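Page 42, continued from yesterday. The earlier attempt failed because a stray header line got pasted into the input along with the sequence. Redoing it now with the clean sequence only.
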Amino acid sequence: MRYLFYIELASNFLPILFGLWFKTYKEKTMSIVFYIFVLIAILSCIEYVCVLFYHNNLFMMRYDATFQIIFYTYYFYHILLSVYKKPILIIGSLLFFITLAFDLMNNNMNESANYVYAIMSLLFAVYSLMVFYQFFVKNETDNLLQIPAFWINTGILVYFGGSFILYLFSNIFLTESHVNKISAFLVTDFLQFVFYLLVILGFWKQRTQHT
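This time it went through. Structure tokens are written below.
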């Protein structure tokens, strides 16, 4: 399965390359997404070093999830317009950190943090649905496909919605057989590929709006 890890590591740089090409970092909301992927790429490189020297990167899962919850929450805080966004995001963050604390009390740092990732993925999927509700209620444009954030949030919903199911039933996928493990990793990589493709499309839409 090591080759899958290498493919995943390399793919983390695709949104960054296209973001630089399309100069996404110059627009405030899209720049948050761009720097999220810069962070993900950095964390992936650290995980690679851990695998290379320590043959275990599971302890990085909790750091990775914590950084993601902070940065994605910051993104949703900027894109959501609901008057209830602040309490919703605060409650979501508290739920995450309570889950993280419970995980740290009951599991070793070198064990997988599947339920922490499940809660994180669920929160992001719910937040993205709130953004879609906002799109359809406000109906500011006749063509949602021209809105960069539409593609970004579609990617978030697809990736984190699918990841939630995988992490929720991780004990089945990762303990039953080697075939199930390979299948779970392939599904994760496929979801990630779709996510990155949609994010790149969102970056491109952002560029076309300024040309």
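Notes: The chain has one domain: 2-208.
Reminder to self: strip header lines before submitting.
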